[in-house]
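Following up on my earlier thread - several people asked me to post the actual chain instead of describing it. Fair enough. Here it is, all 304 residues.
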Amino acid sequence: KFATAGEDPTGMAQKLSLTSKITAFQQYSTNGSLLDSSLTLEGTILDSVTTNLQSAYTLTQKSVNGAMSAADKKSIASELEQLQSQLYDLMNSKNADGEYIFGGNQSQTQPFVKDANGKYIFQGDTGQRLIQVAPSVQIAGNDSGLSLFQQVATRRTASADTGSNNLTVSVSSQSEFDAFYKNNYQFGSTGNNSYSIVTDNTVTPAQYTINDSGGNPLQTGDYIQNTAIIFNGLSLTPDVAAGGSQSFSLDAPKNDNVLNSISAMISALNDSTISDEDYSKMAADVEIHITNALDRIDITQGAV
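Reply from S.P.:
Thanks for posting it. Predicted structure:
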């Protein structure tokens, strides 16, 4: 309608405004395509990680079979080594521009390395690269490997306190104990995470009471020496006559790279001197750690 701004100043102002908006939305469209490509790649990689971790879980579970020979265990260890190598490569995946996907904002730094002690560590950061896809909408185009693979909760456990040598503590139901642990573990004070089993031989049958660190009773029942007491997913077996007390504590929570648990499993499989009890405990630790890693990845996949 006009050739110069002087012919229609208002029209020219509208034209410039619309041109600016068109340019912006063209950029949003380009950003959306880049975002889709980035998240599709991440999703594909996480699918592969899930498959490898599920295979590692199955092999770990299979190795607990008592009929396994030393040669069988070494064969499983070899398979786990291959899976571990594949997982390591997947965790250090790059996009088409050569940027590390799981390094946070440190896209030019390899996020996962093995240190001098043979431990897998993370050297990226927690950053996410936000991509503008609408005037008021930004969506993350990546996820940091710190929360995905490095800081994964290990198995939550409890142990008999020093001096309670006649008490055996084990986890009988991990899910039940995890719920109790989550609701009751107190950070910053070891003493507040201690519990006592007080037994009374002045009544028939003898009785036990489980108290928290403040002396508040949580559970009571008949006491039979060397018979397990089930308490919130724990199996507590005191091997002492009634009339005294034993104590146990919730172990401090730990997070670790799932690759380190697989390394520990490989070492256990190659160790001919390890006891069946220690081996079973190690396998249970690894299974829980892998399960927690799979849960974390599943949540991230949902976000992707």
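The first strand starts at residue 112 and ends at 114. That should answer part of your original question.
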